[in-house]
Description:
CATH topology: Nuclear Transport Factor 2, Chain: A
Shape: globular
Largest sheet: 6 strands, mixed
Number of helices: 4
Number of strands: 6
Structural class: alpha+beta
Order of helices and strands: HHEEHEEEEH
Mean pLDDT: 93
CATH class: Alpha Beta
Amino acid sequence: MSQENVEIIKAMQAAINRGDWDAVLTYMAPSFKIDTSRDLGEWRGVYETPARARRALEGFYEPWESWRIETDEFIQISEDIIVTRLTGYLWGRDGIEVTTHTSAVWTFREGAVTEFAHYNELEEALDAARRRE
């Protein structure tokens, strides 16, 4: 497994968990794209460029009082593609607590993330990642 890419994922998630959007941007390639088109809700879509991805992330997390994203598993598909199983813990301002289990496909090029694609099911993410090989 590409340990460098795993460390990038961990660092990005740590920055997301801190709400440090400037730090999140440092791991994105200039051509970065976030794909949440399979999600439900107003944040659903495809956001190209780091600036648009940042606005999408800020918009998603803004309503929550706090949040934490954890990676439960890293699955290497190729040198530049990793699938992760994720658990999200979100706490709302009115005492609402939400736990989510999702997956993502991370694509890398030259030490930067070029795409993050979000999936509701691990099998969907694995199928998509294998098609990218």
